[in-house]
Write a structure and sequence with these properties.
This protein is an alpha+beta fold and 153 residues long. Helices cover 37% and strands 15% of the residues. The protein has a five-stranded mixed sheet, with helices on both faces. The N and C termini lie far apart (46 Å).
Length: 153
């Protein structure tokens, strides 16, 4: 199936099996490295991307669903001031350990801070609940989002 969509701000085309997961298409057809394959069941968040601005797990979205849509990965946010702020906050807070889950957490944090620039700790926990980290214990990740939010005001 031939599809056309916006990937990180650029119009692209792909010829993929309709049921191929978006995660696989991004990695295989476009060499996107930030999107990681974790559980394959939409439970860990390592493959989180923005789909028309909404965070989704790329393993649970069929490639065909990207037709006419916008998909943003961490690579597409590399010059975005908010994303840069979040990344710096993650580094400063120690919210990055092995780094495997980090792109998904940054994408989810970005979506949260876009819609709510001053979230409470409970709102942060809720919005990041679809992302799993096995290294940090979450406190440093929540602190990173709070630090990034504080810098926005």
């Amino acid at each position: 199936m031939k599809i056309t969509f916006i990937l990180n701000g650029n119009k692209v085309n792909a010829d993929v099996a309709a049921d191929k997961p978006l995660l696989r298409m991004l990695k295989e057809e476009f060499d996107i490295v930030s999107v990681k394959e974790g559980c394959g069941r939409g439970e860990c968040g390592t493959c989180t991307v923005l789909f028309d601005g909404i965070p989704v797990t790329g393993c649970m979205v069929a490639s065909a669903q990207a037709e006419g849509r916008s998909v943003t990965t961490l690579e597409g946010l590399k010059e975005d001031p908010l994303a840069e702020n979040i990344i710096e906050a993650f580094i400063e807070s120690g919210g990055i350990q092995c780094g495997f889950c980090t792109p998904g957490f940054i994408i989810s944090s970005y979506a949260l801070l876009k819609k709510n620039p001053a979230p409470s700790r409970e709102e942060i926990k809720k919005e990041l609940s679809g992302n799993v980290c096995r290294c940090t214990g979450y406190t440093k990740i929540f602190e990173a989002v709070e630090l990034a939010a504080g810098r926005m005001s």
